Amino acid sequence: MGVKATTRSIRALKGTRPIVCLTAYDAVTARIADQGGADLILVGDSVGNTVLGMADTVGVTLEMMVHHTAAVVRAKPAALVIADLPFGLAHDSFPNLLKACRALLQQGGAQGVKIEGGASLAKHIEKLVDAGIPVMGHVGLMPQRVHATGYRRRGLTPADQVRLFADAQAVADAGAFSIVVECVDASFMPKLPPRSTYRPSVLARARVAMARSSSFMTSSGSPPNHRPS
Length: 229
Description:
Elements lengths: L6 H7 L6 E4 L3 H9 L4 E4 L3 H4 L11 H12 L6 E5 L9 H14 L4 E5 L5 H9 L4 E6 L5 H4 L8 H16 L4 E5 L18 E2 L6 E4 L17
Parallel strand pairs: 1-2, 1-8, 2-3, 3-4, 4-5, 5-6, 6-7
Helix pairs in contact: 4-5
């Protein structure tokens, strides 16, 4: 095991080489990811539809996330372990949100949380960071909103790109150490704020190699497409 990654070391990687992030849900996969050189391990709520047989991530609970996060942490990876905050909790009252994040860190052992959402959650994100909880943002396609917005590429129109930019900037200004920009049109990426003024490591812009472990071992008849959009 190498030197334990921190949010500071992850930020320092931006612009130097690809940042490698792999999703894992158990100790065995986490150990493989760590030995392979992953910088971050994301314990994703995608465990619901990739491992547990759910149709989407909406049904994944906090208890499930704590369980799988703890399994990943038992592998003692040098990679930074980030846990997804399950559906709905980011929009709850701040005391309830803080309680959920504390469970992921104290019971699950995560070193940070990932929160789907943009400008509307900036105040909550800022309070979490002030409380000492590292936050990874997530804008663009947000799987937890599948019932409202579906699975489709974002940033296809100028108006959509303006909204995406505003969301990314708000999350950055709130103190997120990194942001996942999922499934957006390639034309949007150069419009993200420049490195000199944009505090986080924007994973989708930092040549991140990010994938779900189960995507490569799927028994589904429709394997996912790993080509850049």
